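Reviewers of the previous submission asked for a worked example of the structure-prediction workflow described in the proposal, so we include one complete record here. The input consisted solely of the amino acid sequence. No template or homolog information was supplied to the procedure at any stage.
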Amino acid sequence: MKTITIRFVHRVKTHDYLIQKYTFFGWKYIQYSQMGGFGDSVDFLYCKDTKEELLKEVLEDHYKMDKRFVKIIEYPELKHY
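From that input alone, the workflow returned the following structure tokens.
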């Protein structure tokens, strides 16, 4: 069973949530890359309207795991105004 330490970041102006994971170097945003036409890649942050949707998308796309097999430690969320 894998243990993931996360926290949500609530952006008040846009009314959505971002997610961060705790690493050796501190809190880092979880993001994904999309490849461009000529070998370029662009990084995007995972962003959803609710915490549940965001957690489900991150577990499926980034970690490629089901919620049943992951122990999640959630820290209090941050609010960006």
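The CA atoms of residues 32 and 38 lie 18 Å apart. We consider this example representative of the routine output the project will generate in years two and three.
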